[in-house]
Amino acid sequence: MGPGKEGLFLDLGRSGGAEELLKRFPPPRFFVARVDGGKIAGKAELMEALASAFRFPAYFGRNWDALLDCLRSLPDEVPAEGYVLAVENSALFLSASAGDKNDFSEVAEDARAFLEEKYKVPFVIALL
């Protein structure tokens, strides 16, 4: 089973954390974007953190549709063999908003399916 075949969310907190992340998804082959889940309570903080971590363009609209567009465009903007969103302090990630967590999961799953189908590259969210 190759990287990213495990599922959208990959819990690495119990299996070595950051070391396991680098072992499975070694840079520069894989683009690893890091965010601190402890600082992401809701949608506004999520959009800011992802814009910075994935180097989204200045015109990023900070809404769910714009997020999906930017995630789908990653191979054009940041060429790599795969993409990982590493969420440190993942137990706190979007803890203040179950609705935002659900919406984000849906967008991320749509982006994952698109990237796999069109570019044959994985997209994984690693929980640390």
CATH topology, by name, is: Barnase, Chain D
Low-confidence stretches: 1-5
Count of domain modules: 1
Structural class: alpha/beta
Q: What's the N-to-C terminus distance?
A: 21 Å
* Average pLDDT: 92
Overall body shape = globular
Number of strands: 4
Q: Tell me which CATH architecture applies here.
A: 2-Layer Sandwich
- What's the alpha carbon Rg, rounded to whole Å? 13 Å
Strand content: 15-25%
* Widest sheet: strand ordering: 1-4-3-2
The helix fraction, in percent, is 40-55%
Fourth-tier CATH superfamily name: Barstar-like
Main beta sheet strand tally, sense and closure = 4 strands, parallel
Order of helices and strands: EHEHHHEHE
Explain how this protein is built:
The chain is an alpha/beta fold. It has one domain: Barnase, Chain D (2-Layer Sandwich), CATH 3.30.370.10. Helices cover 42% and strands 17% of the residues. The protein contains five helices and four strands; from the N terminus they run βαβαααβαβ. Strands 1-4-3-2 form a four-stranded parallel beta sheet. Helix 3 runs parallel beside helix 5 (98-119). The longest helix has 22 residues, at 98-119. It is globular and about 30 Å long. The protein starts with 8 loop residues before the first strand and ends with a strand.
